[in-house]
Amino acid sequence: MTAPTTPPAIGVLALQGDVREHVAALDTCGARGVLVRREREVEAVDGLVIPGGESTTIDKLLGIFELRDPIRAAIRAGLPVYGSCAGMILLADRLEGGVEGQQTLGGLDVTVRRNAFGRQVDSFETDLEVAGLPDGDLPVHAVFIRAPWVEEVGPGVQVLATVGSGPAAGRIVAVRERDVLATSFHPEISGDLRLHRMFVQIVADRG
Amino acid sequence: MGTESTENITGTAKVKRGMAEMLKGGVIMDVVTADQAKIAEDAGAVAVMALERVPADIRAQGGVARMSDPDLIDGIIEAVSIPVMAKARIGHFVEAQVLQSLGVDYVDESEVLTPADYTHHIDKWAFTVPFVCGATNLGEALRRITEGAAMIRSKGEAGTGDVSNATTHMRTLRDEIRRLGSLPEDELFVAAKELQAPYDLVVEVARTGKLPVVLFTAGGIATPSDAAMMMQLGAEGVFVGSGIFKSGNPAERASAIVKATTFYDDADVVAKVSRGLGEAMVGINVEDVPEPHRLAERGW
């Protein structure tokens, strides 16, 4: 593989949420993070991050600003996507615990439970072993904020991490299916950017 | 996987500040009933603030304003699945303990309620639940962060529908942050003294050019343009108090303010969503509020 002359342009869905942290993480990992709020901006990127935020708000704005269908089509056509927390909810084919009428973009053959870990007082930090990271077996420091988890996965989905201890031990919190990646937690907040590096590599490999 | 792992730790600064990061670009709406909370959620609010009376009514009715009835807060927590915030009086650490026990997601130690302590704010490090506090300038913001606030909102003048104080406070914060960034390092010691804020925090703000926590705006926001202007002035999100449920068509106005907050830098969108909203809240000019009744002057 020849080194790309320009870094891949990776969009961050910028309707609501921790957009700036994802853009900074992507820039640090050798990509060019760009904001996506319009259909033409979806078409201009090589990959897309759905950030953390309030999934019900992002879902409503996706509908209002007519982004849902273009993003669904792009994912179906193979656009690499990474979602953290609310982003994981939005990438799930099936959702538990959503509000009435809440939709998802889909793309991951999983069932995700929204607010699965509880309310904010239950939000926590922990160390996780994550499979398939580009560099090494060191645990990932993970920050969970009113986080969802994955209830069940389809046959093509690879489980990358489960919670190690506590009442939610064994719950699935990181998954990958082809070029779609999702985590319950926020690497963009903890500063451990190996998952972002993994995603940038996925995008680069598609070249 | 999961063979060896450390404990799960709750209530850390990262988890508290991170929660506010997730609210960015969003609108947090004051609600006084479960029905209003549903309307807010349906309109795309990122969170609701549960309280007994909106600031406009507190202002009109007078008397001592306190934490809401736990039944009311429970009802709102039951009604919606988005985060629920609630207000405690400045310095009233037991109201905050009660709110934490009820499971609210954020406590607002708020000047909108009658202060319970005119000397000390709550020691917010002692809590698992995160706190948001109001500020009119950088020194006040940094003092609140020193006490453990995980999110700051500019105060504005709540319950007026007059955005002028919110503008002043956002501009003041922005100007003071910019000034710190322009100072040589050997002048930061005196800058910290003048701001009456810890030196380490002052250095951090000077280096990063921003507060170490998320900054929202509040107090007097009543229209989509108000929200968009605050975002252009550097707010990372918006609290709307009386502006929604004291207006002619709360559901439409709430939704319009949400859209304008996302597209705050696109006047075509702000223009489009501003149409056909009916009456905005009538409001009062901050100038006409006698100084002892100005809420922004509570807290120090």
TrEMBL record, chain A:
User: What are its E.C. numbers?
Assistant: 4.3.3.6, 3.5.1.2
What are the UniProt keywords, alphabetically? Glutamine amidotransferase, Hydrolase, Lyase, Pyridoxal phosphate
Q: Which domain of life is it from?
A: Bacteria
Q: Does the keyword Hydrolase apply?
A: yes
Q: Which residues form the active site?
A: C85, H186, E188
Q: Which species is listed as the source?
A: Actinotalea soli
Instruction: Give the reactions, separated by semicolons, that this protein catalyses.
Output: L-glutamine + H2O = L-glutamate + NH4(+); aldehydo-D-ribose 5-phosphate + D-glyceraldehyde 3-phosphate + L-glutamine = pyridoxal 5'-phosphate + L-glutamate + phosphate + 3 H2O + H(+)
Q: Which BP terms does GO give this entry? A: L-glutamine catabolic process; pyridoxal phosphate biosynthetic process; pyridoxine metabolic process
Say what the protein does.
Catalyzes the hydrolysis of glutamine to glutamate and ammonia as part of the biosynthesis of pyridoxal 5'-phosphate. The resulting ammonia molecule is channeled to the active site of PdxS.
Spell out the family assignment given in the record's similarity comment.
Belongs to the glutaminase PdxT/SNO family.
Description of how the protein assembles with itself and partners: In the presence of PdxS, forms a dodecamer of heterodimers. Only shows activity in the heterodimer.
The protein's annotated pathway: Cofactor biosynthesis; pyridoxal 5'-phosphate biosynthesis
UniProt name for this protein: Pyridoxal 5'-phosphate synthase subunit PdxT
One Pfam family matching this protein:
SNO
The keyword Lyase is annotated on this UniProt entry: yes
Q: Which HAMAP family match?
A: PdxT (MF_01615)
Q: Which GO terms describe its cellular component?
A: cytosol; glutaminase complex
Gene3D superfamilies listed in its UniProt record: 3.40.50.880
Residues binding L-glutamine: G53, E54, S55, R114, I145, R146
Give the GO molecular function terms.
Answer: glutaminase activity; pyridoxal 5'-phosphate synthase (glutamine hydrolysing) activity
TrEMBL record, chain B:
- The residues the record assigns to binding D-glyceraldehyde 3-phosphate are R171
Instruction: Say which enzyme class the record assigns.
Output: lyase
The pathway noted for it is:
Cofactor biosynthesis; pyridoxal 5'-phosphate biosynthesis
**Entry-linked CDD domains:** pdxS
Top-level taxon in the UniProt lineage: Bacteria
Listed under subunit, the entry gives: Homohexamer and homododecamer. In the presence of PdxT, forms a dodecamer of heterodimers.
Q: What is this protein called?
A: Pyridoxal 5'-phosphate synthase subunit PdxS
Its organism's taxonomic lineage begins at:
Bacteria, Bacillati, Actinomycetota, Actinomycetes, Micrococcales
